[in-house]
Amino acid sequence: MINKLPNRKALRLKRYDYSRPGYYFITILTQNRIHRFGKIENGQMILNDAGKMVRSVWFGLPKRFPMAILDSFQIMPNHIHAIIGITALMVTNNNPDSAFSAGAHDTGAHDTGAHDTVSHDTVSHDTVS
Questions:
Q1: pTM for the structure as a whole
Q2: Which of 14, 21, 70, 76 is least surrounded by Cβ atoms within 10 Å, i.e. has the fewest?
Q3: What is the Cβ-side half-sphere exposure of residue 58, based on CA atoms within 13 angstroms?
């Protein structure tokens, strides 16, 4: 039986363009809040293969999206928290004249200024960067 989630108030600001430059706090939950990324033992998050994959994808984002700046990042058993910066307008392929059309800036080499808060297979849940 699937738990029905409560109705929640939308947290997005009306008429705010979330592709605008700035820093954004995001949380991503697993479906049905199943523990898919690892477990907590003695106050430490132990990543399983799925958690390690999420970590790898997170740190690979700037190669795919050069306007992205990685900040704090925390993997938990059934969700992730992250702060990501956007340094320029990010648009989709719907606008071929944009500076962020697919592949337009993907050089594969640039300094992201990322803070590696998940540099090991074990991380403290209380880690704050």
A1: 0.61
A2: 14
A3: 27
